[in-house]
Amino acid sequence: MELKDGGQEDHERDSPIPTKDHIYDNQVQIGAPDAGHPGFGLLSTTRKYVKPMNFKDEVRAHRDLHTFLSQASILLDEKATTLDEVLRRMLGHVMKEGHESCDTEEIMNSLFTDAGGKECDVHLLSDTIQGVTSTSTGVRYQQSWLCILSTVRTLQRRHVCIARLERPQNWGENCCEARYVILILAPPRTKLLEAKTEDEFKQHLVIHQEQLAEANTEPVIEEVEDSDPRRGKPLQCRDFFRFGKGIYKDLRRRLPLYPSDFTDGIIGRDRTLLKYTTTAIFLYIIILLPAIAFGSLNDESTRGEIDVQKTIVGQSIGGVIYALFAGSPLVIPLTTAPLAIFISVIRGICDDYDLNFDAFYSCIGLWNSLFLILGGLFNVSLFMKLFKRSTEEVIALFISVAFVGDAVKGTIKIFQTYYHGPILATTNSTIVLQQITDILEKANNHTNVFENPNNNETVSVLAHLEKYVLLPETLVVCTRERPILCLLLMLGTLWFGYALYLLKRSPYLNDKIREVVSDCALPISVVVFSFIGSYLFFDIKLPVFSVHDQSIFTFPRFDKVSGMMVLSGAGLGFLLALLIFIDQNIVISLTHVPEHK
């Protein structure tokens, strides 16, 4: 028998798990049998303690666990009884799901080490992991499960297969009640260094240092994407006088991809109908809610000239036209807080100078459209080269703060309106005096009854006296429950939606259900708490937005537009075009940031 000194080193290099102090290693070497004693041999066994990983603190533990679980193959209620049959079934399942072709016999030979000679052949597992418990009498093995490791040179990645047997099996000492079998196959480790001595290692360092110095002296040629306005050559004045060239380049770049914008996710090998459906539902809710919120704000600021219905219809028309002709499926046009503030400013100007709001607003919209068309023809989007990332983030933060601020101000307004003590339901003094007079007359009539007592009538009056002396509910209003319920619904929607969004990080349910619930977190949260507010608390009348009976489409009276209104509309239209230009381009720029892809 001959034992090689390099056996331990080769085993550590090819082991699927690093052989450190906390790694279990079981190395088996068999000596050549003696001719006189065919059943005799030497067995070398090495055991090492595997230190349990702390999943709370160690990042590698989380990564390995997620990798194993996402790529694991599962066999349930396996009917095979022998270890060889179970392992062959597991290998076939791994090769089928992993789409890899390997020699099963070669892998089986690597899993076992044959001990014995010609007369007897005993299979011993080469590399295993088992659970042990230290007791006062020795070490006790956990015999319900067995983990088998092997290194396969033809594999490209690690494979894990877990089998649950139909009945516990007796596979020898320390494995008498095996029910779960875990098979881990891994490719061999690649040597990171080719240097065998310290001098060779130093020479490699010197060579790499020289190569790095040469690379630093050469100019870096950076590939520039034409669609990124902040990169490329410096901004020049003549770039703005190339009439329509920017639109021409956009069309030439996007037209070949235009059909795929509508078919991606629906047809082809990469279709994901479930993701497509959940995204559509999410976009519907995420577009509808701001339209209702800012439409209600516009209704209040314009006194019904622009209400929720007009906001939703206008946004629908603009969104459909943008989706069909813009060629930017990742950008969704929405009504934002700056636009709502701008509309309230226009209404204030109309009130101060006694102007017709519809005519003046239409004039501003026409000027705004003209400036935006000119900006597209003269490629004004090149000005985005002057915007830094910090500027974009500040403006995006301002828009986000405006969203949150409007929600907080709306809640405060509801509290100021409804959170009060009992008050009179009407300010009409005639109605109030009439009802109080009726109450006093009834009380006076029953006082006369007391002066001429009658037992039956006296009991009846005493039973209903409180009903007649208290003011009726139609005259007194106390609505403190409304703002409390509004606050609970708002915070509950936020909490429930965020909790559902975090469900994809939890171990509950399977990955498909977690993904669908996480994608539809906002719609589910809105629907659930809308049901709670409408049906579980149906006796509490919540404040709702106004719905007007006027026509959605009205033609403005341009006969009331004066020359001063046209000039003023040009100035305000330019400011509105500038606001839309900055808002739109910053959103597109943030969409193309690599961190958001």
From TrEMBL:
GO terms for cellular component: basolateral plasma membrane. This is Sodium bicarbonate transporter-like protein 11 isoform X1. The keyword Transport applies. The chain crosses the membrane at residues 281-298, 319-347, 359-380, 484-501, 521-540, 561-582. The keyword Membrane applies. It is a multi-pass membrane protein. Belongs to the anion exchanger (TC 2.A.31) family. Residues 244-597 form the Bicarbonate transporter-like transmembrane domain.
